Amino acid sequence: MSTGLLLLLCLTGYVFAKEPPDVDCLVVHLKYVSCSWNKQGAPEINYTFQSKFNTDKEFRNCTTYMSENSVNIGCDQPYEGRSKRFIDFSTKLAHGNKTYTKHHHLKDKVQLYPPVNLTVENGTDFNLWFYWNQTYSGCVESEVRFRTNNKKWESNRIITGRQNFCINLPSSSSQYELQVRSRIGSNCGESLFWSNWSEPVVWGSNNSTDTNQINMSVWTPFLYVVGAFTLVLLVTMLLHHERLRIIPIPVPKPSPVFNDIEDWLQFSKGLKGNFKANYNEHACPVREYCPVSESDSESSDGSTFSVTTDQTDCSIPGNESEDQSTPCSSSTSAILVSSQE
């Protein structure tokens, strides 16, 4: 009997002689405070948990316990207001008449949820754009990691407030896998804790993020060919129906010596004809009278003869009501030669 009692006292002393559980607290997505006390292993007894911010008047009992093998290992307490993490937070673990109190600074102990609504697309600038959404974007900085064809991850830090990432001129024959995580940035009280990595999105030869997405880098040459063919067909139809005439305008080379102004201006045949006279002048031949000497006109038998000279008529244009031509001169001269004895 005494031996059993001694063993019970030893076990009880061992339990209470153990180091009290260490409580760790973290503000989750600025929605609630999650505290746990199983860092050193699951406790052997159930503790009662209470907590409060220093601005609160009294401690609050735990509303939601986390348990493992029917033993409490943590508690989630409501969190109200974004700025409360700058206020000291106190926790209390109690079992029987034993109580363990601890004070916490939650300013840099904030963990956000992973980003959501992840999309990846090939932009109009032929670059690969990766987008996501995160609550409280004005205070959040992000980190993107990606890999090509399942090779080594490459990481890039994104400045606070920005929620996109660009990969310049991706290869259409490669596969890109991207993930992102976030945390509270330095301009809002930097947190030590990053969120978990988001679900991966994949783009490329085995693109599974969007079955309706078309790889523009493959279709772009085809669209260029179709556009060029359509333009040529349209121009051909316009030329065939004479709706469109292409008239090249020659640019003359000025010369200090102008040999032929018409050649320099390069007039068309029709335009040159406009500078020529469009009227005709009728030639009017004139015949002079031929003088006849007296010696030639005398004859031995005293006969009389006549010499006639004519002038050809020429037409002078006149009014339409008048005759087409008026005789310029018409005369018949008779020279009488008489012999005198």
From TrEMBL:
It is found in: Membrane. Residues 114-211 form the Fibronectin type-III domain. It comes from Seriola lalandi dorsalis. InterPro entries: CRLF2-like_D1 (IPR048651), FN3_dom (IPR003961), FN3_sf (IPR036116), Ig-like_fold (IPR013783). It is a single-pass type I membrane protein. This is Cytokine receptor common subunit gamma-like. GO terms for cellular component: external side of plasma membrane. The lineage of its organism: Eukaryota, Metazoa, Chordata, Craniata, Vertebrata. It comes from the Eukaryota. Keywords: Disulfide bond, Glycoprotein, Membrane, Receptor, Signal, Transmembrane, Transmembrane helix.
